[in-house]
Write a structure and sequence with these properties.
The chain is mainly beta. The chain folds into two domains: 89 residues, Beta Barrel (Elongation Factor Tu (Ef-tu), domain 3), CATH 2.40.30; 62 residues, PRC-barrel domain (SH3 type barrels, Roll), CATH 2.30.30. 9% of the residues lie in helices and 45% in strands. The strands form two sheets. It has a six-stranded antiparallel beta barrel. The radius of gyration is 19 Å and the shape is elongated. The termini are far apart. 26% of the residues are buried.
């Protein structure tokens, strides 16, 4: 497959290396479960974000901290080796939201973050999961802020306006 419009795709993992001799791929998954690969039906593998190889997902199984992915047209270790380090993307439309208050990370990255008072804090640059809740990394003009993604702190998310409003708990921004 040739050039693919990146706006229609979302990154859900990357290939670490082949797994075994039959073309299985050992994958670091960014998805909440391996079910995401199966629901997508097919994935796009890319080494350079310019050329994409689309293939049908045959199986996806958890294996320790990684996922073992079987695609329909990769049948040998030699074929699988070609995709070592490749990004794995799926069509955005194959992702399902459970409710209107749920957002995907790709929708949140790049939002402008403001305090309830209207003061600009910075841009949401990264998100990382923790045991209890995600943490938003907001890059301000002079420093970086770590904002817990909780209802107590995050008061509004407006994807259309690319804006997030927070009400920080005492001491959160004093570091």
């Amino acid at each position: 497959m040739g050039q693919k419009d990146l706006k229609d795709l979302v990154l859900i993992g990357h290939v670490i290396r082949p797994h075994g001799l039959t073309g299985l791929l050992r994958v670091v998954s960014y998805a909440q479960s391996t079910e995401t690969f199966l629901l997508a039906g097919s994935v796009f593998l890319s080494m350079d974000k310019k050329e994409f190889f689309e293939d049908k997902v045959v199986s996806a199984k958890p294996h320790g901290s990684v996922c073992i992915l079987k695609l329909s047209h990769i049948d040998s270790i030699d074929q699988a080796e070609k995709y070592k380090g490749a990004e794995i993307l799926i069509k955005k439309e194959s992702l399902l939201k459970e409710d209107g208050d749920e957002f995907f990370w790709y929708e949140l990255i790049g939002l402008d973050v403001y305090l309830l008072s209207g003061q600009y804090l910075g841009v949401l640059k990264n998100i990382f999961p923790t045991g209890g809740n995600d943490v938003y990394v907001v890059e301000g003009q002079e420093k970086e802020f770590l904002i817990p993604a909780t209802q107590q702190v995050v008061k509004e998310i407006n994807i259309g306006d690319k804006k997030m409003i927070i009400s920080p708990v005492k001491g959160l921004l004093d570091i």
